[in-house]
């Protein structure tokens, strides 16, 4: 008997799929981009397409019939409260580890999670708080901690120079959304040297450089600072063997904190968590009821929104300023896939 699967609520290439039955080719799977099942197109998506992966939020969004073989029992799904508690615990650990980096007890940490869930905010808040505390403690004098948050693309020589400028023991360097470093062998080797677990971390630039001479940067130095590397790339889901080896070397050198926000549901509950703590719409002068309506709207349309993130929640909140009566229509036009 052919195994069939009914997709109760899913999406294929931005197209919603609801209550449609297909021939199942591969069972429910969790991958780098979320949960999915592989099915035979059966002409539903066009005669030239044989099989497709349909993304779903959870195993509850599918119903399988006609199995003849013994199947593994699926993992028991967490309740919303359990998911929110798990996420809260991970972000609490992020705060603790960041404080450890500031104190110098933790010399290197990698933080992994999807975009727009508050990874950077938590780290920067702890750094700013520590800097302000030091300044107040010394009566407005020079603060002991020195830190910088570096965002965006960076070349290998740019990485080398930045590490030199923040190489002192009381320095903290945060790389946020600098994933280009992970794609370049030279940059990766420099980063590995900075994150090394040995007592002495000496970094070399082994070629002549007019830029280094011009900037007064030596061709070698000891890095004594701390590094926090924030990325959207989950190292456990990388398929490239070459990159896997590099990332494994990074993981062995420092602490690795996965915020465990892999599904659409996880991301939405993270947003709901921050809202329930009263931190999401602080700058908006609308009632809590409007906030509830925004979150309900995001939950009902989670498979159509261009992304599920804190930024998306704030975008929709901005639309309530434009029109209290038609913000949903505006959101459908500007925040959703066609």
User: The CATH topology of the largest domain, please?
Assistant: Rossmann fold
Largest sheet: 7 strands, antiparallel
Could you estimate the helical fraction of the residues in percent? 25-40%
**Form type:** globular
- Write down the secondary-structure element order: EEEEEEEHEHEHEHEHEEHEHHHH
Structure notes:
This protein has 338 residues and is an alpha/beta fold. The chain has 3 domains: 4-65; 80-258, P-loop containing nucleotide triphosphate hydrolases (Rossmann fold), CATH 3.40.50; 264-334, no CATH class. It has helices at residues 80-103, 119-137, 156-165, 185-194, 210-215, 241-253, 264-276, 288-300, 310-322, 327-334, and strands at residues 4-7, 10-12, 15-17, 20-31, 34-40, 51-56, 62-65, 108-112, 146-151, 171-176, 202-204, 220-222, 226-231, 255-258. β4 (20-31) and β5 form a beta hairpin. α7 (264-276) runs antiparallel to α8 (288-300) and α9 crosses α10 (327-334). The chain is globular.
What's this entry about, in short?
Helix content is 38%, strand content 21%. The protein has a 7-stranded antiparallel β-sheet with strand order 3-2-6-5-4-1-7, with no helix packed on it. Strands 9-10-13-8-14 form a 5-stranded parallel β-sheet, with helices on both faces.
């Amino acid at each position: 008997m052919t195994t069939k699967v009914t997709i109760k609520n899913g999406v294929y290439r931005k197209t919603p799929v609801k209550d449609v039955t297909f021939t199942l080719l591969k069972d429910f799977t969790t991958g780098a981009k979320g949960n999915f099942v592989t099915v035979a197109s059966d002409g539903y998506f066009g005669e030239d397409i044989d099989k497709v992966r349909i993304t779903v939020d959870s195993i509850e969004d599918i119903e399988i019939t006609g199995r003849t073989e013994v199947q593994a029992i699926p993992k028991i799904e967490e309740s919303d409260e359990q998911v929110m508690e798990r996420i809260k615990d991970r972000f609490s650990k992020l705060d603790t580890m960041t404080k450890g980096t500031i104190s110098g007890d933790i010399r290197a940490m990698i933080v992994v999670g999807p975009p727009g869930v508050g990874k950077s905010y938590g780290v920067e808040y702890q750094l700013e708080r520590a800097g302000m505390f030091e300044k107040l403690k010394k009566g407005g004098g020079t603060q002991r901690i020195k830190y910088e948050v570096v965002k965006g693309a960076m070349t290998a020589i740019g990485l080398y120079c930045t590490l030199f400028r923040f190489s002192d023991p009381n320095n903290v360097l945060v790389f946020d959304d600098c994933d280009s470093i992970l794609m370049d062998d030279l940059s990766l080797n420099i980063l590995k040297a900075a994150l090394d677990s040995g007592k002495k971390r000496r970094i070399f630039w082994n070629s002549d450089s007019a830029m280094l001479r011009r900037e007064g940067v030596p061709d070698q130095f000891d890095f004594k600072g701390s590094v926090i590397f924030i990325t959207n790339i989950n190292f456990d889901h990388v398929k490239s063997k070459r990159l896997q080896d590099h990332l494994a070397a990074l993981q062995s050198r420092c602490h690795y904190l996965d915020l465990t926000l892999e599904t659409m549901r996880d991301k939405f509950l993270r947003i709901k968590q921050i809202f329930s703590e009263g931190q999401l719409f602080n700058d908006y002068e609308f009632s809590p009821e409007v906030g509830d309506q925004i979150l309900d709207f995001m939950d009902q349309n989670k498979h159509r929104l261009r992304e599920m993130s804190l930024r998306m929640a704030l975008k929709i909140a901005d639309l309530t300023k434009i029109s209290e009566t038609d913000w949903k229509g505006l959101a459908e036009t500007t925040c959703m896939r066609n």
